[in-house]
TrEMBL record:
Homodimer. Pathway: Cofactor biosynthesis; coenzyme A biosynthesis. The lineage of its organism: Archaea, Methanobacteriati, Methanobacteriota, Methanomada group, Methanococci. It comes from the Archaea. Its EC number is 6.3.2.36. PANTHER family: 4-PHOSPHOPANTOATE--BETA-ALANINE LIGASE. InterPro entries: PPS/PS, PPS/PS_sf. This is 4-phosphopantoate--beta-alanine ligase. GO terms for molecular function: acid-amino acid ligase activity; ATP binding.
């Protein structure tokens, strides 16, 4: 157990969750490496939600409220770190969560299914396992598997830690792809429609808060929030944010 007083409490807690998920078979080895890459970028961001991330979060919330069929895609890392946060967000929407694994094995699928058992009983629709019989064009068999009523027909897909290839293929299918990725330089961040450069345990509760608020607004107001957003500009501003921060740092 990490003591709450430790200056790196949050980060160590997340590491514990990642290790635990690996040991229980929910997370692949590669997931631990992906986490490490994320931690590095979080240092550069100052481990906070930047104004640019908040901008993308608000646009995300508005798009999800406007969406006819929003789907939250989850993988081993997101289950390990923020399962309950994703469930809360899904409950404010249509309840759809789709399992999407980079290293898909039946064992890992079933382990994740078990973790969601109670949530499914209370209204969450967990897709992407038994009924995933559609395919994303151009993506190899196991990584391309998606559900008909989930990602395949979704208009908006929230993809934490997606790989660049799939993000690009989903955009090509005409979907609004929202990535959560701490690395503003990743292919995922550059290929997605909206990129939230933030740590997922920090930003998912914020998305949910805005969804709750935006559900009270009318369509025109929501369209106004979305209207002027430019992802390339927002990513560029994130890089400027990082470089300004590094330039003004005292060691
Ligand atoms: P590319 O997107 O360039 O094709 P990739 O997706 O193959 O690369 P990975 O390292 O596997 O590269 O991707 C994992 C991504 O997830 C990294 O960019 C990392 O910054 C991000 N990441 C890891 N942990 C978190 C987290 N907790 N919250 C948000 N993003 C995270
Ligand atoms: Mg990526």
């Amino acid at each position: 157990m990490v003591p709450k007083t430790h200056p790196r409490y949050r980060s160590l807690l997340n590491r514990d969750r990642i290790v635990e998920a690996f040991e229980s078979g929910v997370l692949a080895k590669g997931g631990m490496i992906a986490h490490g890459r994320g931690e590095t970028f979080d240092y550069l961001l100052g481990e906070t939600t930047t104004p640019e991330a908040l901008n993308a979060i608000k646009v995300t919330a508005a798009l999800m409220v406007l969406s006819k069929n929003p789907v939250i895609s989850i993988n081993g890392n997101s289950v390990a770190l923020a399962k309950d946060e994703f469930v809360k967000l899904a409950r404010e929407l249509n309840g759809k969560i789709e399992v999407n694994l980079f290293y898909r094995t039946t064992e890992r699928e079933q382990k994740i299914k078990k973790l969601f058992e109670e949530d499914v009983k209370s209204g969450i629709t967990l897709l992407g396992i038994d009924e995933a019989d559609k395919k994303i064009p151009g993506i190899d068999h196991l990584r391309g598997k998606v559900s008909e009523s989930g990602i395949y027909t979704a208009d908006v897909v929230l993809v934490p830690l997606e790989d660049g290839d799939r993000a690009e293929a989903l955009v090509k299918m005409g979907k609004t792809v929202i990535a959560i990725d701490l690395n503003p330089l990743s292919r995922t961040a550059r290929k997605s429609t909206i990129s939230i450069v933030d740590e997922l345990t920090r930003c998912v509760p914020l998305i949910t808060d805005y969804v709750v608020e935006y559900k009270k607004m009318d369509k025109l107001q929501l369209l106004k929030i979305v209207e002027n957003y430019k992802n390339d500009e927002n990513l560029k501003n994130t890089l400027i944010h990082i470089s300004k921060r590094l330039n003004s740092m005292e060691i």
